[in-house]
Amino acid sequence: MRKEHLFEGMRGRIDDRVILAMAKVPRELFIPESYKSNAYEDTPLPIGYGQTISAPHMVAIMCVLLDLQNAMQILEIGGGSGYHAAVMANLVKPDGHVFSIERIPELVAQARENLRNAGVVNVSMIEGDGSTGLLEHAPFDRISVAATAPRVPEPLKQQLKVGGKMVIPVGTTFQELILLKRKNGFYIEEKMGVAFVPLIGEHGFKE
Ligand code: SAM
Questions:
Q1: Is 54 noted as a catalytic residue in this protein?
Q2: Rounded to 5, what percent of the chain is helix, strand, coil?
């Protein structure tokens, strides 16, 4: 599929700002050599170590739900290839920053290289268990989780600003994409059924 076709297909369903941000990030730079020709198909693709880069429509939907704006501080869990982080970085620049946590060291190294090649400067790719969050940079305006948790990890709820939003797939047999808003309490909206790889860690699934 050609790049223009992918984004044309999103028009009317996805906010134009998000489509524009995605069009500015070359997805082919985040994909292994053998799949580069599939970069603009609306499908997840393998990135090694049993993991995948999410389908473009899923990145788009999660960005729309988070309503990303300039100067926001973002926490991403499940950095993978770095692509989703790069799209969010585009939406919060010039003053915002994305802290992205990935548990597989080889993917962290690859994602850092991908982000460098794409010229993205406002993403910090960090190795670790994202299910415990990133206390040293908390609280966050937005949290985006790209792996399915058995339930919303408590540390992530506590590291969200009042007025903040989190998107996270949750479930065991069936997975649901949840939008969680923090106001005077926590409010949950179930958005759609999804299929993500598991969040593995202290507040996720056990290895
Ligand atoms: N956002 C990524 C991208 O743009 O390529 C795709 C993410 S992939 C669907 C999910 C990622 O979550 C995998 O790379 C996996 O290793 C990672 N992951 C799973 N559990 C994690 C945890 N506890 N902390 C950080 N990363 C985790």
A1: yes
A2: 35, 30, 35
Q: Rounded to the nearest whole angstrom, what is the distance from the C-alpha of residue 99 to the centroid of ligand 1?
A: 13
User: What domains can be seen in the chain, in order of their start residue?
Assistant: 2-194 (3.40.50.150)
Span 55-112, pLDDT tens digits: 999 999 999 999 999 999 999 999 999 999 999 999 999 999 999 999 999 999 999 9
Peptide bond into 44 cis (omega under 30): no
Q: Ligand 1 test: best mutation among 30, 77, 134, 205, most atoms within 8 Å of CB?
A: 77
Query: What pLDDT shows up at residue 2?
Result: 83
- Give the Å distance between the CA of 87 and the centre of ligand 1: 16
Strands (E) across the chain are located at 45-48, 51-53, 73-77, 97-102, 123-127, 140-145, 160-171, 175-182, 186-194
Q: How far apart are alpha carbons 127 and 66 in whole angstroms?
A: 24
